[in-house]
Amino acid sequence: MAGAIWVHGETAPDGSLAKISTEVATLGRALADASRRDLVGVVVAAEPTVAANELAAYVPRVLAVTEPATTDHAAGTIVGQRLAALIERDAPSFVIAGAGPEGRDVAGVVSALTGWGVLVNATGVRWEDGPVVEMSVFGGKLNTTSRFTGDHGIVTVRPNVVTAEAAGAAGKVEPTEAPGELSLPQVPIVDRVAAATTAAPIEEARIIVAGGRGVGGPDGFGVVEELAQELGGAVGATRAAVDAGWIPYAQQIGQTGKIVKPALYLALGISGAIQHKVGMQTAETIVAVNRDPDAPIAEFADVVVIGDLFEVAPALLAALRDRAG
């Protein structure tokens, strides 16, 4: 198994496989096919069985490590130590993880313990005698292409830059133990707070209606929410709207918020600054409503409606309701 490509399988709070890991596994399979290397998934959790079985739908082999310490402690440091121990034992060449909070922690710990380099926040990865990693830097103003100088490295991949696709046949799950003890300080979990909402996570929404500074205030998000409800979508926002306290941070899209990839992105009163563009530019169709014909969003939106959102949005709502009726 030396020289293999490994995928870090992250678990969701309910013990299932995190969505980002299905995307990372799909990317890992493409890299393994291109490089003719083995592909292995690794799940480290207090109860890894469910997530490991789900990851096996994407990769041919999954190592499942039972680690009780993740029950009451932040997973990143613990998983990183167990993963580093397995790396020393089995000698893979590359590890791919999601660029979320846990994936970033795991990558940092594995890098510190193994001496491997890390390429972060990848927006694309291809194989050319090694991983060639595309990254968006300086708030999305530049795109870079980087690679490792040797035959080892860690890549973290942004959410929603890969479309998850299961393999043709399910792989097998192998329970295993990571050698050694947990020597790094552990971070205890003192509280868990669940968001009081029944809506799907914004990262998974197929339709997003987002508001920006042009919405004018918290009351202005009323029409944004109505449109989202009528379209069966989720509500998003720019950092300006979140910083102003008009809408919770969980709905922020952009460089310092969520990365989304919906089929339809309806932007109301959003100028299209580069920091916001980074978070939604991979949407299949972008429709923008803005009074300013020279707003940056006009340069990359598929459809631009020049007008007052408080006139256009109600008209659109009326049309949608008439069609539904």
How many E-type strands?
A: 14
Q: What structural category do the secondary elements indicate?
A: alpha/beta
Quote the CATH topology of the largest domain. Answer: Rossmann fold
Oligomeric status: single chain
CATH architect. name of the largest domain? 3-Layer(aba) Sandwich
Share of helix, binned = 25-40%
DSSP helical segment count? 8
Strand order of the largest sheet: 7-6-5-8-4-1-2-3-9
Tell me the domain tally.
2
Percentage beta strand: 15-25%
Mean pLDDT: 92
- CATH hierarchy class name of the largest domain: Alpha Beta
What's the overall geometry? elongated
**Radius of gyration, Cα only, in angstroms?**
21 Å
Order of helices and strands: EHEHEHEHEEEEEEHEHEHEEH
CATH superfamily of the largest domain: HUPs
Unreliable segments (pLDDT under 50, ≥5 consecutive)? none
End-to-end Cα distance, whole Å, is 60 Å
Largest sheet: 9 strands, mixed
Keywords:
alpha/beta; Rossmann fold; nine-stranded mixed β-sheet; five-stranded parallel β-sheet; elongated
Q: Can you offer a commentary on this structure?
A:
The strands form two sheets. A nine-stranded mixed β-sheet has the order 7-6-5-8-4-1-2-3-9, sandwiched between helices. The protein is built from eight helices and 14 strands. The chain is an alpha/beta fold and 325 residues long. The longest helix has 17 residues. α3 crosses α4 and α5 packs parallel to α8. It is elongated and about 65 Å long. α5 links the parallel β10 and β11. It folds into two domains: 172 residues, HUPs (Rossmann fold, 3-Layer(aba) Sandwich); 123 residues, TPP-binding domain (Rossmann fold, 3-Layer(aba) Sandwich). The protein starts with a strand and ends with a helix. The model has no long low-confidence stretch (mean pLDDT 92).
